[in-house]
Amino acid sequence: MTILLTDAVIATMQGGYGLIAPGAVAIHQGRIAWVGPQDAIPAEFQGFPRHACGGRLLTPGLIDCHSHAIWAGTRAAEFEARLNGASYEQIARAGGGILSTVAATRAATEDDLVAAALPRLDQMIAGGATTIEVKSGYGLTIDDELKMLRAARALPRHRPVQVVTTHLAAHATPPEYRGRNAAYIAEVALPSLRAAHAEGLVDQVDAFCEGIAFSTTDLAPLFAEAQTLGLPVKLHAEQLTDQHGAAFAAAHGALSCDHVEYVGPDGVAAMAAAGTVAVLLPGAFYTLHETQMPPVAAFRSAGVAMAVATDLNPGTSPMASLPLAMNMACTLFRLTPEEALLGATVHAARALGLSDRGQIAAGQRADLCLWDASHPAELSYRIGGPKLATRIFGGRLDV
Ligand code: DI6
Ligand code: FE
Fold it and tell me: Which residues pair with 57 in a beta bridge?
């Protein structure tokens, strides 16, 4: 498809907002062919069919670089228990929390999981997402982890979205391995990773490094195996305590360290040296009523890129909207709206190891969002974001 978008306020996200207004974008064969000022459209694109944007804001399609969008069951009762005084750790240690979602997910079929995920996916898409990352981690057996990854891989057959899949068998220790983390890694996490890789189901490897989950010692064989298979790693690091997971992950060239509220100066320095992105997840911070903020000032001064994601999951972040996550990142973590939008575009792409999206520039995928807004700060300023007027996915107008 060939099209020329005209009369837009364009946030190219090159060097910050990279505003061009009024601007135009030429799209050809699913890619951006040209972007620039309205009055400088090259002759070769003048004849393209036009779509007038009416002065609306055009951004890159948003990228949700951290989600657990595949699960079965609900955790509303746990939410209620927490408000009656139970902590997240107490619930987890009592077999609730992640493990209750594991039981429901094990009982579901691949088709059940896809069906349950589609309404969530629709909400993500309504919030402007065009690429989403989806993790396993609620199966915790070889077969159930593979089932989750197959369900994640199936999503683009049902909706116009690109999916990056992440193996997260090291999310929690299932009851049958309680107190035997090393055995769980050896007998479930490693074989499920090898099988998922052999079946082409996995793009990257993640783990939950935490006192209530896995230590860096537990995870060393998993990250070594990821390296052997040529898969990039990332880590849920320093969400509730400082386990020095960020430094461990950075030493493995991690694409990102996620949550990172409790990361210390050693972790920040290691992330900066390795070019590891800090993925901020304000939805979990908000839901858990946390008070320890991620060290945003330290990330800035060390030059660590910050991404923003939903962490969509049934326990700690039942939220599918990236604009809402951006609003929370600004209000709770004091990001600027420009940093929040970089975090859901350019830096989110980096956190997924993707360089063909996240900016409006010649050669990039033509994944774009046209918003009922006139300035990019409105994406973060309005709680829940402005309405998406038109979404362009792979060069096709689909809203
Ligand atoms: N950290 C989180 O916030 C989610 N996973 C993780 O490692 C929580 C997942 C859940 O509670 O279901
Ligand atoms: Fe998460």
Answer: 9, 371
Encode pLDDT of 160-206 as tens digits: 999 999 999 999 999 999 999 999 999 999 999 999 999 999 999 99
19 near 11, Cβ under 8 Å?
A: yes
Taking residues 87-114, what's their average pLDDT? 89
**Could you tell me the two tokens for 239?**
């969400």
Alpha helices in the chain (DSSP H): 43-46, 76-83, 88-93, 98-107, 110-126, 142-158, 181-184, 190-198, 216-229, 245-251, 265-274, 282-287, 296-302, 322-333, 337-343, 346-351, 377-381
Q: What would the DSSP string read from start to end of 103-153?
A: HHHHHS-HHHHHHHHHHHHHHHHHTTEEEEEEE--S--SHHHHHHHHHHHH
Pocket test for ligand 1, best of 67, 90, 208 (most atoms within 8 A of CB): 208
Helix (H) or strand (E) holding 166: strand 162-170
DSSP state of 365: B
Per-residue pLDDT tens digits for 318-335: 999 999 999 999 999 999
Give me ligand 2 centre to Cα 5, in Å: 36
